[in-house]
């Protein structure tokens, strides 16, 4: 007589979540035939079909629905136990507070958090998004242990005395965000001369926040709109109301309807950098997070 197994329960939960055997196989790292065998074994144990086959995937049967109510709890409890046991082996446990300016908080930092969680599952990383001046105040006040800030042209000369700093390498420099239907959207790269005559959506904000105007080397740019947050700027871009300067750091997290395009401009010097800031003495958790920032393809 067939019996329910933990592997079988995990497979049933994943197939129900994904809606297909193929997607569940990809998510779990199994072959599709292995997924089919596990489902077959569970159906034998239950004594009833668990999924109805449709042209575009599968749907749980009534019996599967009853099983899922318990299977999800079982899988959740086992995963919690695995994390707790991993924490007993892992010296990095507890919480780490990280602060980051908005562009880094949308792209660079989440990838670093994912790397840290993979290596140290018992460590919880809490992310707070704020402008660079606020991040530095929180760092000095002990409210965050790691800060990710922007420095360079157009930004204050921050007081970093007594803090430990290092630049974070990014793979992409400055570019422009355009609507998907814009002529630039289909190009691999835009020459700076082609930016003349574009209508620009520019940023406004509080003191110390990164301010993105029109392209830095353009003379007499046409400003169409100003917006406080980069999400609003990109919303205006998506509506076809202009183009906007955007660091390559955010190229992978632009919203639907927007395309990021690199710009070739030999006259543009690197004006801003992303810097990670900590106290002089880093905890093992902070060191692990900084290492994760270093190891990732920042801005890729």
Could you give the distance between the termini? 52 Å
Report mean pLDDT, rounded to a whole number: 86
- What percent of residues are in strands? 15-25%
Please bin the fraction of helical residues.
Answer: 25-40%
Q: Give the ordered list of helices and strands.
A: HHHEEHEHHEHEEEEEEHEEEH
Oligomer: single chain
- Principal-axes geometry comes out as flat
In the sheet with the most strands, the strands line up as 4-3-5-13-6
The parts where pLDDT drops under 50 for at least 5 residues are: none
How many β-strand stretches?
Answer: 13
Q: Which radius of gyration do the C-alpha atoms yield? A: 25 Å
State the helix count.
9
Strand count, sense and barrel status of the largest sheet are:
5 strands, mixed
Class inferred from helices and paired strands: alpha/beta
């Amino acid at each position: 007589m067939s019996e329910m197994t933990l592997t079988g329960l995990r497979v049933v939960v994943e197939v129900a979540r994904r809606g297909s055997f193929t997607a569940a196989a990809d998510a779990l790292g199994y072959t599709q035939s292995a997924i089919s065998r596990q489902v077959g074994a569970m159906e034998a144990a239950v004594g009833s079909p668990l999924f109805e086959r449709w042209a575009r995937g599968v749907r749980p049967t009534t019996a599967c629905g009853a099983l899922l109510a318990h299977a999800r709890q079982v899988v959740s409890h086992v995963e919690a136990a695995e994390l707790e046991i991993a924490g007993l082996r892992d010296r990095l446990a507890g919480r780490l507070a990280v602060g980051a300016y908005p562009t880094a908080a949308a792209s660079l930092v989440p990838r670093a958090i994912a790397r840290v969680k993979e290596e140290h599952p018992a460590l919880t990383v809490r992310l707070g998004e704020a402008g660079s001046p606020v991040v530095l105040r929180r760092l000095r006040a002990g409210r965050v242990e790691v800060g990710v800030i922007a420095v360079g042209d157009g930004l204050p000369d921050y007081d970093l005395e007594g803090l430990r700093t290092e630049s974070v390498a990014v793979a992409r420099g400055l570019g422009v965000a355009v609507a998907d239907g814009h002529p630039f959207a289909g190009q691999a790269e835009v020459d700076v001369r082609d930016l003349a005559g574009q209508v620009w959506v520019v940023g406004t904000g509080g003191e110390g926040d990164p301010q993105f105007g029109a392209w830095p080397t353009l003379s007499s740019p046409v400003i169409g709109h100003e917006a406080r947050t980069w999400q609003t700027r990109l919303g205006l871009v998506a509506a076809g109301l202009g183009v906007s300067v955007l660091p390559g750091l955010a190229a992978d997290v632009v919203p639907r309807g927007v395309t990021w395009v690199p710009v070739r401009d030999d006259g543009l010097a690197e004006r801003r950098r992303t810097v990670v800031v900590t106290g002089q003495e880093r905890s093992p958790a902070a060191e692990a997070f900084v290492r994760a920032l270093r190891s990732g393809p920042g801005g890729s």
